[in-house]
Amino acid sequence: MGAYILRRLLLMIPTMFGIMAISFVVIQFAPGGPVEQVIANLSGQGGGAGDRVGGAGGDFGAQGGGDASGYRGAQGLDPAFIAKLEQQFGFDKPPLERFALMIWNYLRFDFGESYFRSVSVIDLIKEKLPVSISLGLWITFLSYAISIPLGIRKAVKDGSAFDIWTSAVVIVAYAVPGFLFGVILRVFFAGGAFFDWFPLGNLTSENWAELSWPARIGDYFWHLTLPLIALSLSAFATTTLLTKNSFLDEIRKQYVVTARAKGLSERRVLYGHVFRNAMLIVVAGFPSAFISSFFTGALLIETIFSLDGLGLLGFDSVYQRDYPVVFATLYIFSLIGLLTALLSDLTYTWIDPRIDFERRAV
């Protein structure tokens, strides 16, 4: 197993290099970089990025009569001003040198500072983590807490009325987009056209520090109720059907028939013999499910319920061409994803020691 883990870790190096290289090349051809963002802002056409670059217009010099070719909207700006903008953003260096410097810094986990927020990228990510951790952690917990018992029950009652109507509910819940249900929840229960029962924005109220511990816990979940409902509707559908099918496959095997023939109770057969084998694929997928819930699918929910998390940060960074944040989050999330895939494989071997990845080709 040690050799397998070592091979997987070594394979992460070219994989990460390829991810960053392809992303860097794509960015080179993407229009509207940070220099263009500042120029557009100075000309009154930007989205507000330039006003967060430490007063770029005043610091770099006045507009002149030169023609700073190569950037849209740069006509009439002093070429020295454009050159200083490029130097500030690091674009005065050749692309290969910029890429090599970025990789070297990232290997030391030095992600620099945001272009348009006077804060380091790491501090910015830490600031947004509580929202994403809360959504990812509780969505994963709710998904498994609902899916596993429901999937087992559906497998035991396969073909019954209970199985049919719960399958219909699961399919409908999976088909309805989470953001659409989030809009409905906000309109009905968060100060829309009907009730104002749940708050929007942040994870806690302004007076959270003054509350008792039970009241703090209640306030925390009060803020998370609607986002969790919107996200969990489709989250449990896949795991439910996976659990059901896995149990059905195991229930039909010969060892289950033998256990029943020996006079074991149905509960003993189900939870003493079937459960461990059937849950292998479900439990082993927990790390990747958590990471998936943690980093994906929350952008629209964060926007709808005014939650400032990593999803919204990533979207704003791409929109503003805040490349340090874009590349840093890509690097961190890709690395976590690769490590999670390895952890999932190790979970398989922990649950079922008969699985030996070391004898297989990677």
Automatic annotation (TrEMBL):
Where the record annotates domain ABC transmembrane type-1, the positions are 129-344
Topology term for the membrane: Multi-pass membrane protein
PROSITE patterns noted in UniProt = ABC_TM1 (PS50928)
**Out of the domains of life, which is the source?**
Bacteria
* Compartments, record wording: Cell membrane
- A Gene Ontology biological process term: transmembrane transport
Gene Ontology CC annotations of this record: plasma membrane
State the NCBIfam families in the record. PRK15133.1
Protein name as it appears in the record: Microcin C ABC transporter permease YejB
Q: Source species, please?
A: Plantimonas leprariae
| Taxonomic lineage from the root | Bacteria, Pseudomonadati, Pseudomonadota, Alphaproteobacteria, Hyphomicrobiales
